[in-house]
Design brief:
This protein has 172 residues and is an alpha+beta fold. Helices cover 23% and strands 33% of the residues. Strands 5, 6, 7, 8 and 9 form a five-stranded mixed β-sheet that branches. Strands 1-4-3-2 form a four-stranded mixed β-sheet, covered by helices on one side. A hairpin with a 5-residue loop joins strand 7 and strand 8. The radius of gyration is 18 Å and the shape is globular.
Amino acid sequence: MDRRHLLSAAAFAAIALPAASEAAPAATAGMRFDHVSLNVRDFEAALAWYGAKLGFRTEVAWRVAALNGKRLAYLRLNDTMLELVEADAGGIGLPEAMTFPEHFGRTGYGHLCFRVDDVEAVLAGLAAEGVPTFVRAETYDLDGTPFRRRVGFVKDMEGNVLEFGEPLQRVG
């Protein structure tokens, strides 16, 4: 399956969700997204990479005594919060995806996506900082919908996939 069809399948699943005008259950009516947690092998390198390459700042960092002093940190960029967690020594994660179809063929954590105004500008800026592009910027029609989106992908220093996406565009 090629990238276009993989993204189209994801878009189809998204349009099958209840309409935004439908009332949320009372228990979740005020719910807002808070953060994504990312376990990393090299905590110090991850703090440095997310700060230098993407502009995240450390909001708070701490150790958890009950977890043998494991280090954690909340990193913030605008309204986005990322929690870095120091993985256990020798911890086993997903093998790094070497191709785009391989990345989308897995279950569990997929990637983080950041909305940007200009994908090419972000990818070029990151390339100038030594971050290679994993998947070049392309515009995808979201099959079965009146929308398309321009996206591009990189990997962080541990091989985690990061997407940069422009806002949805209505076609026609």
